């Protein structure tokens, strides 16, 4: 892990740097806001420890400049200002975590490691695309060829599952478990009814159907075959 520590108190700076070095991490140091901002923009770091009260440029200004430049490096704010409002302000200005002074090095290290692990997590997919069909999971909208399609919540979940498994045959059992949260067969045609409704919205008025029945097995959502 490569860490930039921006801290104007020389004893605290040396304490953090020594601890990180002893744990096998690479440390760059800065004693004021302007120099720390320059380094953070010029170099690539896994995490930044940022003191809030710095000469030259205060920590929150450094943080805001970083975020406005598009830099998403995890930042742990370090400060003697520990009131709730202070912590909230730091987090809202773009900090990923907030640690108040005095602190134990073991906690600082654990928080940095947690921030880096969080940054390594795969991005959560929020948009699904199959051919001209688009689903925005955040806005909860569906469009095909730019036309908005209104879906009921269960229809949305059903389509989401089909799109996430585009090109794969999904069985009725899979749909019952993942969309309806049933772990038994209710002996009803609930799936067929919802698929029929979904087809009426997704495939009707379009030249190429996307939802197909696999006889005696289930369904598959796939893009139209490309002619060569």
What features would you highlight for this structure?
Arc Repressor Mutant, subunit A; alpha/beta; 12 strands; Rossmann fold; 228 residues
Query: What is the H/E string?
Result: EHEHEHEHEHEEEEHEHHEE
Beta-strand percentage?
15-25%
What's the arrangement of strands in the largest beta sheet?
A: 2-1-3-4-5
Average pLDDT rating: 90
The description of the largest β-sheet is:
5 strands, parallel
- The chain-level structural class is alpha/beta
Distance between the termini: 50 Å
Fourth-level CATH superfamily of the largest domain: Response regulator
Fill in the CATH topology of the largest domain: Rossmann fold
Question: Explain this structure to me?
Answer:
This protein is an alpha/beta fold. It has 2 domains: 2-120, 3-Layer(aba) Sandwich (Rossmann fold); 127-221, Winged helix-like DNA-binding domain superfamily/Winged helix DNA-binding domain (Arc Repressor Mutant, subunit A, Orthogonal Bundle). The chain is 39% helix and 21% strand. The protein is built from 8 helices and 12 strands. It has helices at residues 10-22, 33-42, 59-68, 84-92, 105-120, 153-164, 172-178, 190-202; strands at residues 2-6, 26-30, 47-51, 75-79, 97-100, 127-130, 133-136, 141-144, 147-149, 170-171, 211-214, 218-221. The longest helix has 16 residues, at 105-120. The radius of gyration is 26 Å and the shape is elongated. The chain starts with a strand and ends in a 7-residue tail after the last strand. The model has no long low-confidence stretch (mean pLDDT 90).
In short:
The chain has 228 residues and is an alpha/beta fold. It has helices spanning 10-22, 33-42, 59-68, 84-92, 105-120, 153-164, 172-178, 190-202, and strands at residues 2-6, 26-30, 47-51, 75-79, 97-100, 127-130, 133-136, 141-144, 147-149, 170-171, 211-214, 218-221. The radius of gyration is 26 Å and the shape is elongated.
């Amino acid at each position: 892990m490569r860490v930039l520590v921006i801290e104007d108190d020389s004893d605290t700076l040396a304490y953090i740097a020594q601890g990180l070095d002893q744990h096998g991490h690479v440390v760059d140091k800065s004693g004021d806001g302007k120099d720390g901002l320059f380094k953070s923009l010029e170099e690539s770091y896994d995490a930044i420890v940022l003191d809030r009260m710095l000469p030259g440029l205060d920590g929150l200004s450094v943080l805001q400049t970083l975020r406005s430049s598009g830099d998403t490096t995890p930042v742990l704010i370090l400060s003697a200002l520990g009131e709730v409002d202070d912590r909230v302000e730091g987090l809202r200005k773009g900090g990923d975590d907030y640690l108040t002074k005095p602190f134990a090095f073991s906690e600082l290290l654990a928080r940095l490691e947690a921030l880096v692990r969080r940054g390594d997590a795969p991005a959560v997919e929020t948009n699904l695309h199959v051919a001209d069909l688009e689903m925005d999971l955040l806005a909860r909208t569906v469009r095909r060829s730019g036309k908005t399609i209104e879906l009921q919540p269960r229809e949305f979940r059903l389509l989401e599952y089909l799109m996430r498994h585009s090109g794969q045959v999904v069985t009725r059992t899979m749909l019952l478990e993942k969309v309806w949260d049933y772990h038994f067969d209710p002996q009803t045609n609930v799936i067929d009814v919802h698929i029929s409704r979904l087809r009426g919205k997704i495939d009707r008025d379009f030249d190429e159907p996307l939802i197909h029945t696999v006889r005696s097995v289930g369904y598959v959502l796939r893009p139209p075959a490309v002619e060569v």
